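User: Sequence in, structure out. Go.
Assistant: Echoing your sequence, followed by the structure tokens.
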Amino acid sequence: MISRRSFFKAAAVGAAAASLNLPGAELLSWAEPPRETGPGGPILLNSNENPYGPFPSVVGMPNPFLNANRYPDSSYEALVSRLAKMHKVTPEHILVGCGSTEALKLATTAFTGPGRKLITAAPTFEAVWFYAGATKADIVKIPLSTSYAHNLALMATEGQKGGGLIYVCNPNNPTASLTPRRTIENFIRDLPKGVYVLIDEAYHDLVTVSGDYISFLDQPIENEHVIVTRTFSKIYGMAGLRLGYAVAAPETIRRMAEYRQEDTANIFALRCALKALDSQQEYEAAVQRNTNDRAAFMHEAAARKIPTIPSWTNFVMVNALRPVKDVIEHFKQNNIRIGRPFPPMDTFARISLGTPAQMKAFWAAWDKLPKV
């Protein structure tokens, strides 16, 4: 199976970036893992990873191999119970898997196929395109609006024509932009009963207060065809451990679970997730640190008059005003990887936020670009 990370590796050319010294990061700074692939390896700002790693309480867990000889049933049940309590639902509403991409795959397998379309924005996170291709579904890609929100009017029109699953990544990857909650609600209410809507909230924890954004888990709506996915890859810094989950009506979860592989969530990842969920102070520090890093990036971009799309995530989409392939190659020559091209946005570069030292290197490399 193609994983979330592998979509971005082929043409990724990263960027390390300069940051301002803003408060709020000291609690977690010691846990930063090395970001290079080896001595002298490239700085990786290409995959929207958390450069600081898991929370200190997770890194400091005693005996990481505890119960490694046992199947993960009890730990799985413990995490499902914890998530159900957190989201005020029953365990039957929860499906935990190997990254949130497993939930995307299960939903796509369950609700698309011949005669049942997948409808998505373009550009967006492409995993569902690959999964729907395997089910022989028609894939309908709707360009984003001029504000980089999902064009829900056009998506609704396609949904009325027999759509099986509509995928809404909010905030969207790669644009880091929001689609207003109120427009998504109205959109869902007007869809035919047979159409499912998957709302990917992978970057939920990184959204600061916005009148346009309310999670569909924090404030759910009464619709058994709505599926919401979350991940431990971003704010929790556990991308390599592969753990995520879906929340939906029990019957919807049951239909998705028919296609799952048994025991895809390993016991170590499950234990780390349980520890992270109980580390509220570290969670809040991580959120503040990302907010600071994002503000620092936007400050540096504004100082250079670089056009950017307003970001609500741990990455920023900038308009380099030149072919992005040239920009990618420039950073590669400076030992930095940034995001790959995202057609049709052929002058835009997606920059994942790194540590202050990495961002300093990024801006130094940016300033070597030829003037336009």
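User: And one key feature?
Assistant: The longest strand covers residues 163-169.
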